[in-house]
Write a structure and sequence with these properties.
This protein is an alpha+beta fold. The protein has 19 helices and nine strands. The relative contact order is 0.15.
C-alpha cells in the first residue's frame, strides 16, 4: 500500500531533481564568465515577450545594458542558453568570413510531418546549399525585369481601388490596403493566380496569409519549445504550420502545376521558373545543371515562403514609410518629385529602368528599413565549436546566435539621433562611411535574403503608386508615439496605421 508520505517524498524528490537540473542549466553563462541576463524559471529571459514586450524591445534592453562590456552576452530562451551579438566586426565575421561555422539559421522545420515548412529560409546544411544554388537564378535582375509587368498590373488595380475608396479625401487604415496589394502581387508572381484581395478583403489568399502570421499564447509557447528542443519536437511530430494553411497553399501549387502542364501554359512568374528546374534541373538560358530536380513538395515550400516573406515584410515597410512621410511633409514632397520626374523621363511608364533611377525614394525605403526592420533580428546556429577572435571564449556547437538588427540600426553611436527619420543617411556619400554590419535589413553573406531585389521592386512600385496620386497626412487615429504590437513576430503598429490620403490635383 502506497502511503501519502511516500507520494510526498517522490514528488519532493522529483521537484528537487527538476530544480537541480534547471539550476545547472541556468549556470551556463556564469561558469564561462560571460556577461549575461539573470533568468527566471520557466521562461528564462523571454517571459514578457508577446505580452509586455515585443522581441525587439527585449533585445534593445540587452543591447543598451551590455554593449561595450563584451562582444557578446548570454541569455536564456526557456532553459536554452543563447548568444546575443553586439560587436559589428564580430557580426560581419560570422555572417561572411566565418560563415562555415554559422551557415544554419536555427529555424525549426519538420520535413516529415510539415513539408511546407522545409523551405529555403528554414532548412540547414547541404539541403540549404543545394536548394539555394537551384533557386538563386530565379532572382537575378533579368528575372525581376521579366516579372515587373505583373507587378505593374496589380499596382494599376491598387491605384483604381484607392481612387474608388478615397474619392478626394479619406481616412483609412493603410496597412490593410498595402497588405492586399502585396497579397495580389505575390499571389500573381509566386502562384500565377489572381488573388483578387484588393476587391475582396476576404479572399482566401488574404485569409490564409493572415492566419500564417497570426499569434496566440499557444503558438508562442509552441514556437519557444521547438526553438529550444528541435530534435525532441521532431520526434514528437510537432508542426508549426496549421494544417488548413498548409493544405491550402500546397493544393494551390499542385493544382496550378497540373493545369499548366496539361494545357502547356507559360507565364513570366516565379512558379514557372521553379517548374523549369523541376523538369530539367536548370532554367532557360542557364548553363548550370544542378544535381537533382525540384520535387512538387519543394516547389510548394518555396512558393509558400516567397508568399509569406513578400506579403508581410513589404507591406510593413510601405506602411512605415508612408507613416514617416506623413510626419515629415518635406520628405514626402521630395520623394513625390523624385517619382514624378523619373516617370516623366520615361513618358509616364513605370519601367524597370525608371524604378532603378528613383534614388531618393530608395533612400526613403532604406531609412524606413533602418528604423523599422520588418524582422528585428536574425538567427544563426553554430555548426562547430567557434573560438571568438581576440577572446578566450569558445562558443559551443548548436548554440543559437541572435543578431539584433533593430538595436544596431537604432544605436545613437552609429546613427546620430536615430529616432529622427532622415533619408540623407543613405546618400551615396554617407553610406560610404558606415560599417557594413550597421545596416542589415536583408542580412548579409551567403545566407542573405534571396528575394531582396523582388522585395525592393515591389515596395518601390507600391510607394510610387501612392505618392504620384495622393498626399499622405496624419489624423487623430495615427499612432504617435508609435506602439508595437507585442505578440507579432514582425514590427507592426498596435491598432493599425490610420492615415489620411488626399488626392493630388491633376
Amino acid at each position: 500500500m502506497i502511503l501519502w508520505s511516500d507520494i510526498v517524498f517522490l514528488v519532493g524528490g522529483l521537484v528537487f531533481l527538476i530544480y537541480f537540473f534547471v539550476k545547472r542549466k541556468y549556470s551556463y553563462w556564469a561558469k564561462l564568465g560571460v556577461p549575461y541576463a539573470e533568468p527566471s524559471f520557466p521562461w528564462g529571459n523571454i517571459g514578457q515577450v508577446g505580452s509586455k514586450l515585443h522581441s525587439t524591445e527585449l533585445f534593445q534592453e540587452f543591447y543598451k545594458r551590455f554593449k561595450g562590456k563584451a562582444p557578446f552576452m548570454g541569455f536564456y530562451a526557456t532553459i536554452a542558453p543563447q548568444v546575443f551579438l553586439m560587436d559589428l566586426d564580430l557580426i560581419q565575421r560570422i555572417l561572411i568570413k566565418d560563415f562555415q561555422y554559422f551557415h544554419d539559421r536555427a529555424q525549426y522545420y519538420n520535413l516529415e510531418d510539415d513539408p511546407i515548412s522545409a523551405h529555403l529560409f528554414n532548412i540547414d546544411g547541404e539541403k540549404w546549399k543545394t536548394l539555394r544554388a537551384k533557386i538563386s537564378p530565379t532572382f537575378t535582375s533579368g528575372r525581376m525585369k521579366m516579372m515587373l509587368p505583373t507587378v505593374i498590373d496589380v499596382a494599376q488595380n491598387f491605384h483604381k481601388t484607392l481612387f474608388e475608396k478615397i474619392g478626394d479625401k479619406a481616412e483609412i487604415e493603410i496597412k490593410d490596403y498595402l497588405s492586399r496589394f502585396s497579397t495580389d502581387v505575390i499571389g500573381s508572381c509566386a502562384f500565377g493566380l489572381d488573388c483578387n484581395s484588393l476587391q475582396d478583403p476576404n479572399a482566401k489568399f488574404r485569409i490564409y496569409g493572415d492566419k500564417a502570421f497570426s499569434t496566440s499564447w499557444w503558438r508562442t509557447i509552441r514556437f519557444n519549445f521547438v526553438s529550444s528542443f528541435v530534435e525532441l519536437a521532431r520526434k514528437l511530430h510537432i508542426t508549426t504550420t496549421d494544417k488548413d494553411v498548409s493544405d491550402f497553399y500546397r493544393g494551390v501549387v499542385f493544382d496550378t502545376i497540373r493545369y499548366r502542364e496539361n494545357k502547356g501554359v507559360q507565364r513570366s512568374d516565379f512558379l514557372n521558373l521553379l517548374m523549369q528546374i523541376k523538369d530539367r534541373g536548370n532554367l532557360d538560358g542557364d548553363t548550370i545543371n544542378y544535381e537533382g530536380k525540384l520535387t512538387l513538395e519543394e516547389i510548394a515550400a518555396q512558393s509558400f515562403v516567397f508568399f509569406l516573406a513578400g506579403y508581410e515584410t513589404s507591406s510593413t515597410a510601405m506602411t512605415f514609410a508612408l507613416y514617416e512621410m506623413a510626419k515629415y511633409p518635406e520628405i514626402q514632397e521630395k520623394a513625390r518629385k523624385n517619382v514624378l520626374d523619373t516617370l516623366d523621363k520615361y513618358n509616364g511608364e513605370f519601367t524597370y529602368e525608371a524604378a532603378m533611377e528613383m534614388t531618393y525614394l530608395d533612400q526613403v525605403i532604406n531609412e524606413t528599413l533602418r528604423k523599422y526592420p520588418p524582422l528585428g533580428s536574425v538567427t544563426r546556429r553554430i555548426t562547430q565549436d567557434y573560438q571568438v577572435p581576440g577572446t578566450k571564449f569558445v562558443l559551443k556547437k548548436d548554440l543559437r546566435v541572435i543578431i539584433p538588427i533593430h538595436a544596431i540600426q537604432n544605436d545613437p553611436e552609429i546613427y546620430e539621433n536615430p529616432d529622427k527619420f532622415d533619408p540623407e543617411r543613405f546618400s551615396v556619400e554617407n553610406s560610404k562611411n558606415r560599417h557594413n554590419a550597421a545596416f542589415l535589413p536583408f542580412g548579409d553573406g551567403p545566407r542573405n535574403c534571396i528575394g531582396l531585389r523582388f522585395g525592393m521592386m515591389q515596395v518601390r512600385v507600391g510607394l510610387a503608386t501612392v505618392l504620384r496620386s495622393f498626399f499622405i497626412e496624419m489624423c487623430s487615429r495615427t499612432p504617435d508615439p508609435l506602439i508595437l504590437q507585442k505578440d507579432n513576430f514582425t514590427m507592426t503598429a498596435q491598432g493599425g496605421m490610420w492615415l489620411i490620403l488626399r488626392r493630388v490635383s491633376e
